[in-house]
């Protein structure tokens, strides 16, 4: 129902006690009777039969009567009719007090009020009379004028320029100029002036006020901004303006100053900008300076600009994994030079030195430091840093389990990494170590293995990559399985050979669990094997542990909690769907719920609390192989499997890695297509969807993958190598 906007809704207010419930406006004929309509008056609907619906409002306020009530052009006769109908139509049973409807005429003069809770709409609303469950919503349109705002400021500025109606004069601390202004304008723009002019301060009644500590340039810029909403900033007036904006609490100008400071930062002035930011507590600028110093630290070292940096900024750079372009030795010498520049800085020595990654230096560099840096020996904590590095260098096999802040590679980027595999062309076994660089969307080559590998085991401990067993020659029967083990150190881009397996194996699973490696099952020249071996890093040796219940090869595995899980695989030429777990604490195997599908040469990984089983193959009929596209995950807490979306294309004997909260399946063999593939499929656990994302350089099977932190190579492989604490063995 359309009601005219003469009805004005006023926000909820507490209703004062009244004898009557409804008041109507005076009528135009001047009779103005003291007519009261008690709320309890209940009338039947005038448009229905006498037995009509109680409270029906359809058509009640229509036509001449509606016009009379709302426009107040009513005679005594119409007033009586309206008074009789209005309580029923407009007022429902009282639910709560506090809402008031005011009636105003077209000139806006307030007449009478209707007091009760009810609902009435204008244009897009309708009257509700469901026993008082009502609201009032009257359409109101707001209009604004940017021209008026601009004209207002312009007018005020003209008054200021003409010194018209100005009631106070501001004088800067240097007293070079005076500024007549309007108190009300200044108070409305600045909390400082608002407190001064309204808070009972002595300046409240003064005609002239001197602002000590503010320069003429700074105060003028602030006043200009208040009256024009514009400010002119440059390097010359920035500090004066910043002082005034900070002192007078003019936040927009303060923000403009921050923007200018950030936009003008260079290696030549970053120290000065940092000083300004510290003086005025400009957190955003300080954060920017920290990032700028970090990104340009190698340039600052060459120009010696870093010498004047604050201790906080220098420490932020030295502690960051993102610091690039400097060796640890260069960073150590930079910290020493900064400390020696001012004797008072010696108190910061350990705070800086604890971020130098001494363990990642070469043995010769550590020796030079111990001989040259005598001042370090005066600080016990610094001496302990050198001892830590020495111990790290002396125990190369234990390094993956000795990780601290100072042994982490200086890189904030985790990458997908692939190792080995057999190439489709000529069936050549690869020894390549590659990473996928998302920035360039290309695969880049790291230091290759000394020997080729495929069908090998891969595991990561402390960002060290282990390659175990596998084959150097293409052989689907596993008769050329090997027992050698290599470790890749991303800090130095170097490979190190460690202790070999007790039993040669390929088509097996390798897991890293609680700082040790576990190699389970597989096959070799003797056939399928059930043995399981554990590698102890401290002793650099492999020992046999509890074997699997039956020989398995082509199985997959993963780790969750303190257990290693093994799924599927092939036993006596039969594909399996069983799931078992190994507990190193008790050295026992346990049977879990079976998968829904038999499969082998599949992959397995852990994400959150779910163990995902993906792809693989099995027999189609009695002798032919078929891709398994179905996927599922296991929930250890409830010992239950759940189906998920199937793969888009078949992949067996693949590399798998969890990367950026998604599961990547790399390369492999498609039994349906009868060829090796170069695809990478990605599974999103949130959306339960697969997609093909990018390709590997060439079709490859038997490849292995992981995610780890490495430096993406920028030049050749050789340029990325550094001196390693322990030479590589062949």
From TrEMBL:
Keywords: Kelch repeat, Repeat. It holds the Pfam family BACK. One of its GO terms (cellular component) is Cul3-RING ubiquitin ligase complex. InterPro entries: BACK, BTB/POZ_dom, Kelch-typ_b-propeller, Kelch_1, SKP1/BTB/POZ_sf. PROSITE patterns: BTB (PS50097). Residues 166-235 form the BTB domain. PANTHER family: KELCH-LIKE PROTEIN 9 ISOFORM X1, LD33804P. This is KLH13 protein. It comes from Polypterus senegalus.
């Amino acid at each position: 129902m359309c009601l005219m906007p003469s009805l004005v809704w006023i926000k909820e207010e507490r209703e004062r006690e009244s004898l009557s419930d409804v008041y109507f406006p005076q009528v135009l004929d001047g009779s103005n009777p003291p007519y009261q309509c008690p709320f309890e008056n209940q009338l039947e609907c005038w448009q229905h039969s006498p037995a009509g619906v109680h409270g029906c409002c359809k058509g009640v306020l229509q036509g001449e009567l509606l016009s009379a009530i709302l426009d107040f052009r009513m005679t005594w006769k119409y007033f009586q009719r309206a008074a009789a109908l209005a309580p029923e139509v407009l007022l429902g049973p009282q639910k709560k007090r506090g809402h008031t409807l005011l009636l105003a005429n077209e000139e806006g003069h307030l007449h009478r009020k209707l007091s009760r809770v009810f609902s009435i709409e204008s244009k897009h609303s309708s009257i509700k009379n469901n026993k008082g469950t009502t609201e009032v919503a009257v359409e109101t349109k707001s209009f604004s004028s940017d021209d008026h705002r601009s004209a207002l400021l312009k007018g005020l500025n003209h008054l200021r320029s003409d010194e018209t109606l100005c009631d106070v004069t501001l004088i800067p601390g240097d007293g070079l100029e005076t500024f007549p202004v309007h108190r009300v304008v200044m108070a409305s723009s600045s909390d400082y002036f608002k407190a001064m002019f309204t808070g009972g301060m002595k300046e409240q009644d003064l005609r002239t006020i001197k602002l000590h500590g503010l320069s003429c340039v700074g105060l003028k810029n602030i006043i200009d901004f208040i009256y024009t909403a514009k400010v002119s900033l440059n390097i010359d007036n920035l500090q004066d303006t910043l002082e005034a904006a900070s002192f007078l609490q003019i936040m927009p100008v303060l923000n403009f100053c921050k923007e200018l400071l950030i936009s003008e930062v260079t290696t030549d002035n970053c120290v000065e900008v940092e000083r300004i930011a510290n003086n005025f507590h400009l957190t955003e600028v300080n954060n920017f300076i920290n990032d700028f110093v970090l990104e340009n630290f190698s340039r600052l070292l060459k120009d010696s600009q870093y010498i004047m940096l604050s201790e906080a900024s220098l420490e932020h750079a030295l502690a960051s994994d993102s610091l690039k372009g400097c060796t640890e030795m260069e960073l150590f010498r930079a910290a020493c030079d900064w400390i020696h520049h001012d004797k008072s800085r010696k108190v910061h020595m350990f705070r800086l030195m604890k971020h130098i990654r001494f363990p990642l230096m070469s043995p010769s560099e550590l020796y030079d430091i111990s001989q040259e840096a005598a001042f370090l020996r005066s600080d016990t904590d610094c001496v302990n840093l050198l001892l830590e590095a020495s111990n790290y260098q002396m125990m190369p096999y234990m390094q993956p389990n000795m990780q601290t802040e100072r042994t982490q590679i200086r890189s904030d980027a985790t990458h997908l990494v692939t190792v080995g595999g057999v190439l489709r062309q000529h069936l050549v076994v690869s020894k390549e170590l590659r990473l996928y660089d998302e920035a360039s969307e290309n695969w880049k080559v790291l230091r290759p293995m000394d020997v080729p590998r495929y069908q090998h085991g891969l595991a990561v401990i402390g960002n060290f990559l282990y390659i175990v067993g596998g084959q150097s020659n293409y052989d689907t029967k596993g008769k050329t399985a090997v027992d050698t083990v290599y470790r890749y150190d991303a800090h130095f881009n170097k490979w190190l050979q460690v202790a070999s397996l007790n039993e040669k194996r390929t088509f097996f699973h390798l897991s890293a669990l609680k700082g040790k490696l576990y190699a389970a099952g597989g096959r070799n020249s003797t056939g399928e094997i059930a043995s399981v071996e554990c590698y102890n890093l401290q002793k650099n040796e492999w020992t046999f542990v509890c074997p699997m219940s039956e020989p398995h090869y082509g199985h997959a595995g993963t780790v969750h909690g303190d257990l290693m899980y093994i799924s599927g695989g092939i036993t006596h030429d039969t594909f399996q769907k069983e799931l078992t777990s190994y507990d190193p604490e008790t050295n026992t195997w346990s049977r879990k719920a079976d998968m829904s599908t038999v499969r082998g040469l599949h992959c397995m990984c852990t994400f959150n609390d779910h163990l995902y089983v993906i792809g693989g193959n099995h027999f189609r009929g009695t002798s032919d192989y078929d891709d398994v596209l179905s996927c599922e995950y296991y929930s250890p807490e409830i010992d239950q499997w759940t189906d998920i979306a199937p793969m888009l294309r078949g992949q067996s004997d693949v590399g798998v890695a969890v990367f950026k909260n998604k599961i990547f399946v790399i390369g492999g063999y498609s039994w349906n297509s009868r060829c090796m593939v170069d695809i990478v499929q990605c599974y999103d656990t949130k959306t339960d969807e697969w997609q093909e994302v990018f390709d590997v350089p060439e079709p490859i099977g038997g490849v292995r993958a992981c995610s780890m932190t490495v430096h993406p190579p920028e030049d050749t492989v050789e340029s990325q190598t550094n001196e390693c604490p322990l030479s590589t063995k062949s």
